Structures are given as structure tokens and as C-alpha cells.
Amino acid sequence: MDLIDDPMEGQNSPEFSVTELSGAIKRVIEGEFSHVRIKGEVGRVSRPRSGHIYLDLKDDKSVISGVIWKGVSARLETQPEEGMEVVATGRITTFGGQSKYQIVIEDIKPAGMGALMALLEKRKKMLAAEGLFDASRKQTLPYLPEVIGVVTSPSGAVIRDILHRLRDRFPRKVLIWPVAVQGAKCAPEVARAIEGFNAMTPGGALPRPDLLIVARGGGSVEDLWGFNEEVVARAAAASQIPLISAVGHETDTTLIDFVSDMRAPTPTAAAELAVPVRHELAAWLENQSARMRQLLSNGLTARGQRLRDVSRALPRADTLLDAPRQRMDRAGEQLGPALIAGVQRRRVRLADVSGSLRPATLRQRIANDRTRLNGLAARLGPALSRGIASKRDRYESRAKGFRPAALQRDRDAKAESFQRLVTRLSGAAQRQMMDWQKRLAAMERLRETLSYKSTLARGYAVVRGDGAVVTGTKAAKKAAVLEIEFADGRMVVGGKAPTKKAAPPAKDQGSLF
Description:
This protein is of the alpha/beta class. Among the domains are: 18-111, CATH 2.40.50.140; 116-280, Rossmann fold; 455-507, no CATH class. It has 15 helices and 14 strands. Strands 1-2-3-5-4 form a 5-stranded mixed barrel.
């Protein structure tokens, strides 16, 4: 039995109550389908006295339950009727009391199929048939991209929202490819931007992005039509760089949303999907480190206690020799009589055997053995001669096949092979050292990037007043002395430098772009 037993299989499997499992399913469904639009035929319609409307939306294969709350139904322009083909907008949720899911409808309109929608449906079917919408071809987004490429208009509010969100969560390098986000130039420019980012050389003078964001604000179907063009959808599908589409609002859907690796409901949400929150990540790492230390301490304590418990069950060292020592004493007492009895038995047996011995018998046996020995001696000489001759012939035949030149060539070949192996090992060692040096240099660049000193080198400054960082005009006016820190040093405005030790540098309040 081991001193430290491993936990049995299945001991860490959690047990959920029905309510806990139902709540977990509700959170998953509402998180994945927060806001959707559904087109279908209205089936059963029920209007109880409460004023709510309960209905079914169906097509030729499936049915989904829907509910319109009293406040929403009162302001609907079109009331749903059985057999009507509609487009319903709402959010998917679950009803744990009956283990069913449903859509809470916020708007419902008749489904009028115009020329643009007909063309859009045709393109969707064609691209879906080619497999461009398949989940198996979608790439996983990098957890923390070094460079993010953004395809959008440089003058709109979208790029400012994205940059602001990235700066708040985890500042990253951003490359902006300016394009038109509506009109005739939209589709070709967006397609060229996606292809251009993919054509960049990794590690070049202009770094290739690790993640792409195609973003635009909300608008009508005509405003967003550029992102429904086939050239944009195919360029997004062919992108080797993971791509997030953030076109329009939550209810707006374009073809690029289906072929992209991830769809974001808004441009701000795309920035949130692109990078984690730095402070939360640092807190999580610190928490995991504390948990690991606590677990190690608890494990060592438990194992020490287990060892002490097991040691108490073991006998003392001095008691282990008591029984063997007693057996040895008993054996020593019995040894003398046993030896005497053994000698006596052997003396009797010797007397019995010696009584049958006769000198004539011994002389006859010796004579027979001498005759046999003489016969063997006569045969020994010729046998030795034949053996020596046979071994001499075999040695001479082997000596004829011995060639020193062949041995020399074999030695030279093995020496050359050994030299090649030494050369390969030396080259591998050099490459390993270079790889380690590159990794060390990359970590040093990352350290410099995360330091606020690198931000100062790009033209920013840190303002301190009365020993604290100043983040606004009110605090600056109240401070008696202002100290401004640049990349190459510090200067004092309004008086002498304070003698009090400056507070640690705060997070950069300026823009990173």
C-alpha cells in the first residue's frame, strides 16, 4: 500500500440540482442567441386575458414557441394572425418549468421579399452549398494578438470605439486599412483590404496582423449592401488570418457574418472579442498562483499527517529483533546434542560400509582402472595430433581472408561518419542557442512594450502634482507645482521639484494610437 493514495476515479465529478442545470442551460442559450431574427409562418395564436400573445413560428420542418408581452403587443403595427408569414425579432430564452425554449418577440413584421432580399437569399444558398458557411472551416481566434488589422472608415465613430475599447482592455498595435463602408466602392475596397492584410509577410517591416476586424456602424439594407457582395464574402472566406465581422447592429445580418470566423454584434463587441481584459487576466493569474500554493501546502500537510499516522502503526526497531534472537538462543541450545547425534550416526554408517571392504576387491578395481587408463592414453596422442592439424588448417584459411586494406577503409569510413555526426551536433547546438536568444529578445520586447516608458518615447508625458498623477484640469489648477515626465527626463512647472518621493507611475492616460 502506498503512503499517498491517488483519488479514486469519479470523485471530482460534480452533482447538479435540476434548478442549477436548468439555469446553466438558460445562460448558455441566452448567451449564444442573445438577439435573433426569425422568418416563418405563424401557427397557433393564443390571446389570454393577461394581454400577452402566445404563438408558434414554423416552417416545413420545425416549430418554435414565441411570446409577445402585453407592453410590446400594444405598440405593434401588425398583429400576428394564423397563417401569416412574418419576420420576428427578439431574443431566445428558456422556460425551466416546462424544459422548453422560446423566443421573446420584440418586433414582428410581414415578410415582404424584395429584389435585394431575393438576390441575397440566392447568394446565401450558393455560398452555403459551396461549404463557406461550415463551422469546420472557421478558425480559432488568437487569445492575445500582437497586431490587429481593422478594415473600416478612418473618419467614423467605429474606429474610435474600437481603439478606445482596446486601450481600456489590453492595448495592442493596430493597423487601419481605410475603405469606403457604403456605396459602389465599398465591396472592392473591403475585399482588397482583406487580401492586402493576408499578403503581408510575417515578421516584415510592416508586421502582418494576427487578427482582422471588418467593422461598420448600423444602417439600412441598402447601406450595408456592400458587405453582401460575393467578392467580399469570398475574400473573407479565403482569409488565412482569423476574421471578426462587426457590420451593423445586433439585428443586422450580412453575408460576411456567415463566412467570418466570428460575428460581433457591434464594433465595440468586436474589440472585446479580440483581446482579454489585462487587469482581469493578471488577477486570474494571481488567484491561480495563490490556489496552487494553497493546494501544495494542504497536500504536504495531509501527506505529512498520513506519514505520521502510518509510522505509529509500525513496530519499534528494538522489538523487531526479539523473536529472531529467541530463535537463535533455542537453536544454540540444540546445536551441541544435534552434532553429537550426527557424529554417532555417521560412525555407525562408516562401520557398516567398512565391513564389506576387502583388499583384493580394491586391487582388482585399481587394475581395471589402470587398464582403461592405458587404453585412453594410447588414443590420446593421435587425437591431439588430428585436432592440432584441423585447427592449423582453419587458422590458415582464415589468415588468407584477412586484408588490412579493407580494415583501413572501414576505419576511415567510420571516422568520416563520426566527424559528420559531430558537425551535425554542433550545428544543432548553435541553432538551439539562436532560438533561445530569439525567445529572450522577444520577451524583452514584450517587457518594453508593456512598460509605460515606451509610451513616453512616442511623444506622451506623465503629469504629476503634489506627488500624485494629475489626470484633469481641475487637479492641475489645484496643484502648487506640476512635474512633467518625458522620455528623456522630468521638468518642473510653477516651482521647484518636490523633495517627496514621486508616486509610482500610473497608467498612461493618453492615446496609444
